[in-house]
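dude i think i finally got it to work??
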Amino acid sequence: MFPALEGPVPTTLRGNITMKWRTTLLTGTLSALLLAGCGGGGDNGGENGGGADADGGGSGEEFTIGVTYTTPESGATHIGMERFKELAEENSDGQVTVELYPNGQLYASERGAIEAVQAGNIEMTVTASAPVAGFNKNFAVLDLPFLFPDHETAYEALDGEFGQSLLDELPESGLRGLAYGETGMRQMTNSSHPIESPEDLEGLKIRTMENDVHINTFNTYGADASPFAFGELYSALQQNVYDAMENPINLIHQMNFFEVQDYLTISNHAYTATVAFMNDDFYTSMPEELQEVVSDAAKEAQDHQREVAQQQDEEGLEVVQDHMEINELTPEQKQAFIDAAEPVYESLAQEIGEDLVNEARSFNETE
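look at this
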């Protein structure tokens, strides 16, 4: 198998980026203590200390934000993060520096990236919402099969109170959710035959993201589903470790999966959001005005990223159709998949509660 790069980041790649904000905070704290001592004690110290704080407070602190993600430089996530870097650095007047680490160069798996952010080994990551469920189980609701029929329905859910309520739970896990982007609608690929019904998946070993809902869905369809590091997936498909996988078209194109898979089924079986989030301690260490700058930059960047992802889906389809046999599920075929997946909904409702599952489903209800 192909192990993901987990644990501490090699110093030759990461350097001392992680420690910059801690060093800044420690230096600021020691300076404040020294200034307080020089200003005298008692009530008089408040007046003198106020003057010192005004001159040497947090407004001049500098912060470096390292951002790691597994997708390539050509991908929508990287393009979105380039916009984030531009906005955060410009609108902070240089107090914020953003350093980007795409293509899994620090962590081959998204779970590894999340764990690194959680531990403070790097400040920020952008991952699919699926592995986030391993850190907050309520995020699993976003990965229910056929939950959102189109992008607009997904945006309505994620950009409103429902999506924000999920982000608001992340600080409990040491994370700070900033904004939703997307990898988009997921499609099925395999190296054996066209997929037209759940029965066509029986016996196929399929790679999924590290998310119980994804795994349970494809096991329910009769496949043999298991997670695997995205950064090592091409080699795994090439060496027939897996027969099949599922990803948005933009990633099928950018990662050249069409070279090692023969059949593409346009199923739109799941919409995958991405989540941009930071280490919560790092986020709260910044002055409020910089927190606002960073949050606003993330939201604007992720909106741009969504547009790019949809454009790349269209461009990618033009390329992969020359290399793969493509079929699109008819409404009747899609309904067979929806019906077969009902046990997945029931199982998740038992785990996270019917109310949350029903709230998510409500966005797909037609009048």
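Residues 1-13, 15-58 have pLDDT under 50 and may be disordered.
im so relieved honestly
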